[in-house]
Amino acid sequence: MVSRLEELIQELCPDGVEFKPLWKLTAWDKKFNGIDKIMQKKIIPHKYYLSADFNVVEDETGDVLYISTGIVDKRRYTTEEKAGEYLRDGEIVCIPWGGNPNVKYHKGKYVTGDNRICTSLDPNILNNKYLYYCLSNKIDELSSYYRGAGIKHPNMLLVLKLIIPVPPLEIQREIVRILDNFTELTAELTAELTAELTARKKQYEYYREMLLSPNGKEKMVRVKLKEICEIYLGLTATPQYTDSGVKFISAQNISSDFLDLENVKYISESDYQKATSNAKPQCGDVLFIRVGSNLGHPVIVDSDERLCIFVSLGFLRIKDKNTVISGYLKHWMNTDLFWAQVRRTVHGAAKVNLNTGWLKEFDIYLPSLKIQEKTVDILDHFDAICTDLTSGLPAEIQARQKQYEYYRDKLLTFNEAK
Predict the structure, then answer these.
(1) How far apart are alpha carbons 327 and 375 in whole angstroms?
(2) Alpha carbons within 13 A on the beta-carbon side of 268
(3) C-alpha–C-alpha distance, residues 359 and 29, integer Å
């Protein structure tokens, strides 16, 4: 079956299309290296943008888009009143004047801080959205024109010499239609996968709270953490690292839901022997992060290797394995039962950390070992599902992105007319 695009190519340009440099097709916001200034667009000076006089909010309530230079567009908006003389309205394509190369498209009201703005000289010859897709497809070549130490800037003379295919306008519009649809489908898939992950996590959190809270159905005993566990902290002084020896771990090694012993530092055998036993977790202990953005995150030590930890970590060691299991403790440290006690304890504190002095006084509700094991099995199963979705989501999105780039490249590949 012949596609609409193939029909148009056979009808309008069976012998190939013209290839032209950007300087013949586009108008830019500045004069570069002797190339005539065709169109002047004002941009927001950084001093003005960063001042209190210009307010950009990170939501979608404004009607003027602030086009950032970053690869990820946070869709920040402002108002026409605040934009003032910097307000512009039109259909534009832009690249950052400094930083990581990327291409953005916008149609409507906008302001920008440090982008190079371009638009088609003649929309009857070059469609602006088609121009956006062409430049996006040539991002590697475009990136090679960014030079300099530190923050890189584009060599605009080279950018303006960049060659793109210019098929008849009807073909450009069909390519834009196809790629817009593909982009929309990819966005919908990403939204669906993200919603599924969010729903699974909420389901997991619901069952975790229900299973670890006193509910009247199971006999649960309230005890203090100090009654069932010893609580230890890591070394307060930074040791001398070596190329090999005993593995020395910190918060980055337990930031996932498992103990990562691949990317570790080492200390010497003699320093390990000198270290206090408080800094030497063993298999079955529950490690947790004491400070930072991942505060309280727990993992179970599942290795018999000798380990030593930094003060950013602590661990729980069970006194009597007939009273509680490690998995139950790990899940308890993620519940609101645990975090409500943290919030009460650190209320008003300038810096939050998990301190042994008050951790030992925390309450925990314990059912029988049999119920604990069943609870851990259920929650580990839910956790595995969420982990699979979490790791699978970026992979699926990446696969879709590669598929999109493949088809974009195919759609924008033409034979050059002789």
Answers:
(1) 9
(2) 6
(3) 60
Question: In the predicted model, what is the mean pLDDT of the chain?
Answer: 84
Residue 134 to residue 406: CA distance in whole angstroms: 13
What pLDDT does 87 receive?
83
Instruction: Read off the tokens for 74.
Output: 């946070």
Tell me the longest C-alpha to C-alpha distance in the chain.
86
Arithmetic mean of pLDDT, 277-302 = 90
The confidence score (pLDDT) of residue 61 equals 65
Q: Model's pTM, two decimal places?
A: 0.65
Of 259, 252, 258, whose CA–CA distance to 294 is shortest? Answer: 252
CA 294 to chain CA centroid, nearest Å: 16
User: What pLDDT digit, counting tens, does each position of 163-207 carry?
Assistant: 999 999 999 999 999 999 988 888 888 788 778 878 888 888 888
Query: CA–CA distance from 185 to each of 130, 310, 348, 377 (Å)?
Result: 19, 47, 47, 37
Helix (H) or strand (E) holding 150: none
Q: What percent of the chain is helix, strand and coil (3-state, nearest 5)?
A: 40, 20, 35
Amino acid at 376: V
Indicate if the pLDDT at residue 119 is higher than 80.
Answer: yes
* Predicted pLDDT at 162: 94
pLDDT at 42 over 50: no
Q: Give the containing element (helix H, strand E) for 168.
A: none
Dist CA 56 CA 48 (whole Å): 12
State both tokens at 114: 């440090």
- Rounded Cα gap, residues 113 and 106, in angstroms: 15
Q: In sequence order, what E strands does 250-348 have?
A: 265-267, 286-289, 298-300, 307-309, 313-318
Q: What tokens were used for 284?
A: 């079955």
Residue 398: per-residue pLDDT: 76
CB-based burial of residue 155 (10 Å sphere; 0-12 exposed, 13-18 middle, 19+ buried)?
middle
Helix ranges (H only) for 21-138 are: 22-25, 46-50, 80-83, 128-137
| Run of H or E including 67 | strand 64-67
Which tokens hold the place of 103? 């291409």
Take residue 272 and report the two structure tokens written for it. Answer: 């390990």
Highest mean pLDDT among 46-55, 68-77, 213-222, 406-415: 406-415
Tell me if 22 sits within 8 A of 162, measured CB to CB: yes
For 271, list phi and psi in degrees, rounded to 5: -70, -35
